[in-house]
Amino acid sequence: MCYAIPGQVVALDGRIATVEYFGERRQAYNEFPSLKVGDFVYAQGGFVIKVVPPEEAQEILAVWKETFFELQEVDLRLARLEVEREGVERRVLRILDKALEERPLSKKELLALLGLQSPRERELLYKVANFLRRKYHGNATCVHGILEISNFCFRNCAYCGLSTHNGSLWRYRMSDEEVLEAVREAVEVYGFQALVLQSGEDPGRSVEELAELVREIKRRHAVLIFVSFGEIGLEGLEVLYEAGARGILLRFETSNAELYEKLHPGYNLSQRLAHLERALELGYIVATGGLIGLPGQRLSDILEDIFLTRALSAEMYSFGPFLPHPATPLAFSAPPSPSLVLNTLAVARLVDPKNAKILITTAFETLDPRAREIGLLSGASSLMLNVTPLRFRPHYALYPGRAHEEETVQEQIAQTLRLLRSLGRAPMDLGV
Ligand code: 5AD
């Protein structure tokens, strides 16, 4: 996963390959010198990552072809806009009609949507977001794996259970061999095509060592690697890109500079944004976003977070609820309501209908067990499965009671495929 479906190269223009999937064409950046028109490839996040032998591709395509169009039909049915307009304020109807016509909404209008409380009105917002998701992304759902390679962290983020506030956490650092074995299993046994490697800001593994690990993974597997090691320095970004990493997952957490400094004493937002901007310059696919419902955060801050994500040309929006961790200074702050999280995902879809892959985060799943289903029907289009070995997983305690803490990768995949099938979605990543 992205249990990608292979596509066929139908045109090549320099580094840009046009890849066709059951009649749909997408473009992907190609780094394989020998690629030719007619080849079958896996593309991920806009990169061609692997050339597949034609027999193998045709076999997989034959299996998918049967279900692909059926899935599309289910998705279409669920995304239909037969909406109950009764009980919805006229002003809200007007804003949502405007959204459907894809006329830009003002900040005031978007704020009104973000703050919607009435179930009828929220339902209509989610339907519109789902409609736009389908219009631009079809039923493609991006499923990445995440491997949490170390929970050491020297930062003092006020909300985070891995921070220095948490003196009682058992700390682990997977050895290179353990990481390589987990990656091998994720790629070779389970078929992941894109993996996020994540850790706290761990002084125990230098950038050079991380780069060597990425290089070794790339030597062994054709897999798209996202790095998520916090602020590793602008040069560090370059070193990891050269080693073969092509994506970065780094949330700016909040776009409110004052709030940022309160939550991260001694650090500042501009330093964080400098990383994201540099990553973009280097050619990374950027996944970023913020925490929803931080103490002191206003609705307008969340809207600004969405705008900032778009301004950073993020390909993936990663927005999840703040959940209080008992060993942190925010232990007694309340988490947001699940509807605020859904409103945020839906408004993000309205703000960036065409480009955004919108992630359903594990934090949202922890807040609401139906998060995946309701999120995928409210504009979201992306999931991450946890491939961290079970013996380490409970110790990656960003917040308590994380969803999927005890599920094997196999169980998570089975559940995900069941859910996607019921919603008419195909686990694939059609790239840009
Ligand atoms: N609740 C929700 N998300 C959290 N993160 C860290 N602590 C928490 C928490 N208490 C998120 C941060 C970070 C990501 C790895 O985990 O946004 O970027």
What report would you give on this structure?
It is a single chain. The longest helix is centred in the first third of the chain and has 25 residues, at 54-78. Helix 4 crosses helix 11. The strands form 3 sheets. Strands 6, 7, 8, 9, 10, 12, 14, 15 and 16 form a 9-stranded parallel β-sheet that branches. The model has no long low-confidence stretch (mean pLDDT 93). By secondary structure, the protein is α/β, with parallel strands linked by helices. Helix 5 links the parallel strand 6 and strand 7 (194-199). 47% of the residues are buried. Helix content is 41%, strand content 17%. 5'-deoxyadenosine binds at residues 159-161, 251, 253, 291, 320, 322-323, 325, 363, 398-399. 5'-deoxyadenosine (5AD) binds at residues 159-161, 251, 253, 291, 320, 322-323, 325, 363, 398-399.
Fill in the keyword field for this structure.
SH3 type barrels, globular, 432 residues, 17% strand, alpha/beta, binds 5'-deoxyadenosine, TIM Barrel, 41% helix, five-stranded antiparallel β-sheet
